[in-house]
UniProtKB/TrEMBL annotation:
Originating species: Levilactobacillus brevis ATCC 14869 = DSM 20054
Pathway: Lipid metabolism; fatty acid biosynthesis
Stated name of the protein: Acyl carrier protein
Keyword annotations of the record: Cytoplasm, Fatty acid biosynthesis, Fatty acid metabolism, Lipid biosynthesis, Lipid metabolism, Phosphopantetheine, Phosphoprotein
PTM text: 4'-phosphopantetheine is transferred from CoA to a specific serine of apo-ACP by AcpS. This modification is essential for activity because fatty acids are bound in thioester linkage to the sulfhydryl of the prosthetic group.
Gene: acpP
Length: 82
């Protein structure tokens, strides 16, 4: 079973690789739009990479709670636990 720390670290790597953001800016409380200033294309690229990495489907339009890194980590943990 994957742990929260493992998913968080993987997500940090994805964000740094995909968006060239400073790893020190990424915490569980980090808001994608407010703190990392991601636009919709950035969000799409990150979600696409996460879906490929974890073999899950994410509907960013309807899934609330995905505004923060922690929310996305929780979502990934739930989706991969099934």
């Amino acid at each position: 079973m994957t742990t929260q720390a493992e998913v968080f670290n993987q997500l940090k790597e994805i964000l740094v690789d995909q968006l060239d953001v400073d790893v020190d800016k990424i915490t569980l409380a980090t808001n994608f739009k407010n703190d990392l200033e991601l636009d919709s294309l950035d969000v799409f690229e990150v979600i696409d990479h996460i879906e490929d990495t974890y073999d899950i489907e994410i509907d960013a339009d309807t899934d609330s709670g995905l505004e923060t890194v922690g929310g996305l980590v929780d979502y990934i943990l739930k989706a991969t636990a099934k």
